[in-house]
Design brief:
Strand 6 and strand 7 form a beta hairpin. The longest helix is centred in the first third of the chain and has 22 residues, at 2-23. This protein has one helix at 2-23; strands at 28-36, 39-50, 53-60, 65-68, 70-75, 78-87, 90-101, 104-113, 116-126. The chain contains one helix and nine strands. The chain is of the alpha+beta class and 128 residues long.
């Protein structure tokens, strides 16, 4: 009888802790929205966490092209990664930094285009 009671307590504890850990993990598919040049751009992020290393792909642009993220990290609830893309034969890199809270990420994006740095806000919502 004691074993059953202990097993129930352990399973209940694991059941409570698992959702908390999942909320602190950016792994998953995200709908990302960012405002660049007065236009809201919607794209998809597919992220995977391995330790504090964040990998994945950014899916967006005119052809919904998959672009690997670079320099991805996740530590203390902070998400950071870069995406290098090409438009009109010009390469540009956007650096994303944000904070994960449950199923949303909010942060700032920084892009250098033509020697000018442009900042924008971005948000991402985890897709179920």
């Amino acid at each position: 009888m004691k074993r059953i009671a202990v097993a129930v307590v352990v399973l209940a504890f694991v059941g409570l802790v698992s959702p908390l850990r999942a909320a602190d993990d950016p792994t998953g598919t995200w709908k990302l929205e960012a405002n660049f040049g007065g236009k809201t751009r919607v794209s998809t992020l597919k992220l995977k966490l391995d330790g504090d290393k964040l990998t994945g792909v950014y899916v967006g642009g005119q052809n919904n092209t998959e672009t690997p993220i670079e320099n991805g990290s996740f530590k203390d609830g902070k998400v950071s990664f870069s995406v290098t893309r090409e438009f009109n034969n010009n390469k540009f890199t956007t650096k994303y930094n944000g904070a994960l809270t449950g199923d949303s990420i909010k942060g700032k994006a920084e892009t250098e285009i033509g020697g000018e740095t442009r900042m924008s806000d971005w948000t991402a919502e985890r897709q179920k």
